[in-house]
Amino acid sequence: DQQVKQNSPSLSVQEGRISILNCDYTNSMFDYFLWYKKYPAEGPTFLISISSIKDKNEDGRFTVFLNKSAKHLSLHIVPSQPGDSAVYFCAASAEGGSEKLVFGKGTKLTVNP
Amino acid sequence: GAVVSQHPSWVICKSGTSVKIECRSLDFQATTMFWYRQFPKQSLMLMATSNEGSKATYEQGVEKDKFLINHASLTLSTLTVTSAHPEDSSFYICSARDLAGQAGNTIYFGEGSWLTVV
Predict the structure, then answer these.
(1) B105 touches chain A (CB under 8 A)
(2) Digit-coded pLDDT (tens) for B54-92
(3) Which residue from B46, B103, B111 is facing A42, i.e. has the nearest CB?
């Protein structure tokens, strides 16, 4: 049973526009969420996180929104840049992030010039 | 941000031999490190949680005698693939939790290690 789902395997966006990556989870014990960016043959790079006590966290061009009632979170990138092209993984953890991370399958973002 | 380094980046070994991969947290102490593997076009699969000074906790289906994990210090964890077979060929990634970091309970990843068993 997949506890963290990224239903869109891929997303294509024009440079300068907004990229919205979605993630759904089923485990109500999850209370800490993270987004990672990954290039082929490299380890994931941490982007941004959010605790369940918040519904929004912003860091530069990246904003993560959390809707606890819907068990849904999204990552907004604006404006999108070609260098943002990568696979984005949503991850969730319980116990305020002390528990192991559970990853979604990733969404491949392509930002076209 | 925090840095986690993995070595080697890639390794080729003969079937039946053992290979060791190191994971180091360079600028923070990590009581907990994690080992993942990733098959092509798939998500990261957690293999085990490595705790400094104690035995690793393995995920279901992961052979502890095959994937030996040692976390001897607060900055180093090693994964040894014993008696490697071609099906062990994969991308192995470690991560470490920075409890004291600015982002709180953030887990940082190493660069990954490509293992090819021939």
Answers:
(1) yes
(2) 889 999 999 999 999 998 888 999 999 999 999 999 999
(3) B111
